[in-house]
Write a structure and sequence with these properties.
The protein is α+β, with helices and mostly antiparallel strands and 114 residues long. The chain has one domain. 26% of the residues lie in helices and 16% in strands. The protein is built from 3 helices and 4 strands. It has a 4-stranded antiparallel beta sheet. A hairpin with a 4-residue loop joins strand 1 and strand 2.
């Protein structure tokens, strides 16, 4: 049994998070989805999105996980869990860039210098 993980609310509107996973053809799949036995490395992806405002977390793909993170033979539930962890792990790492832009008036639209 998979250990439950609580999804954080949307960082923008506090709306409820939803999970979505799709196969390589765009068809929706679920946690227990079984791929054909002859499909050695199935390609699929998962992401969390906000039901209220539509904000999306990162799209987690099996191909990318294999190529860049050396994670192979993942089940749909594994990829969904990674998507939830990355949705929950949002932080203000780039806040210093935003603050620097604020001091220079770069966060305005339209900018006065254009």
């Amino acid at each position: 049994m998979i250990e439950p993980i609580k999804m954080a609310p949307c960082p923008f509107c506090e709306g409820p998070p939803c999970m979505e996973a799709r196969d390589e053809h765009g068809a929706e799949i679920f946690e227990g989805h079984q791929f054909d036995a002859d499909d050695e490395h199935p390609c699929f992806s998962a992401h969390v999105w906000c039901h209220d405002c539509g904000a999306r977390g990162p799209n987690i793909e099996t191909l990318t996980l294999g190529c860049f993170e050396q994670m192979y033979d993942l089940q749909v539930a594994d990829v969904m869990r990674i998507a939830v962890e990355r949705w929950n792990d949002r932080h203000a790492k780039a806040r210093a860039c935003y603050d620097a832009g604020e001091r220079e008036g770069l966060n305005l639209w339209p900018r006065g210098d254009q």
